[in-house]
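Hello forum,

I keep getting stuck at the same step: I have a sequence, I want structure tokens, and every attempt I make locally crashes halfway through. Rather than fight my setup again tonight, could one of you with a working pipeline run this one for me? It's a single chain of 317 residues.
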Amino acid sequence: MDAEAAPLIGPAEIETFKAKKLAEGQSKKSINNHLAALRKVLSLAAEWNVIVKVPKVKAFKVKHEFINDEPFLTFDEAERAIVAAALEWRTFVIVALRTGLRVGELLALKWEDVDLFAGQLVVRRTLWHDQEGPPKGGKDRKGPLSDEAIAALKVHRHLKGPFVFCDASGTRLTHSMVKDVVPSACRRAGLAKRLATHGLRHTSASHLVMRGASLKAVQELLRAREHRDDVRYSHLAPNMKRDAVRLLDSPKGISNGNLTQRSRVRAGLKKKAPASPRLTGAKLEREKGFEPSTLALARRCSTTELFPRNSSARGGL
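Reply #2:
Ran it on my machine without issues. Output:
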């Protein structure tokens, strides 16, 4: 921003800007992103004494609607898409599905970020508009690799360059080069759905929730925004909240799934039978007359295991 222009920006100019963007057809959410950037710039201008006071920047109120039609592939459709994907893109599709990485994070992934022995990777950078930068959130994140992803990456391992996904010369791929990978795989698999490549991230998260993973675990794995993804994926696990609330119906004495002895009595339950004592080798030798050669066996077995009732072996001794 021009230093001379900053003092000329006031509430009227900001409202004019908002009206202009709405007339251009931009959504309120997109305009709010512009306003957030403008607010940051004006704050810096005030900090550097370019302007005396930061004008108030009012963002649009955006209603958070329930999202239940986010496109994703079912388990069967995902497997069909993997099989139908072109051979050179199959590893890309598998890793995207099994890690939930964003497209930019996949494109910026280097072999130094992947530990196939430990079965994990570290997201250190992303690609946006052909420029590398820190991942979303500004922090590195570590994530585990599934067995299928590890196997695919081992087969895909190459020495063409530092990037995991690159062209024949080792040059990093771009968004435009991979934009048709998933739509093409869906067409070849005969699927009616037409997902963009980013749809594999939603598919990965949806599969995790449908398999029983908690929303919190999904958020941590994908480094996603909590409120938005609670809304996006919670309908895929309708019983999760119900099961959580049912924990409140448990007796007062329950702790980590175990009842205290007093609570068992109040609940009308029988006392737990004491565990049968296991005799040590020294006691067996002293009390049962075992010879030293049998002590090794005695240490691994109880007297009940050695001499079951009605056993002829017991009578033999």
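The CA atoms of residues 276 and 302 lie 9 Å apart. If your local run keeps crashing, start a new thread with the error log.
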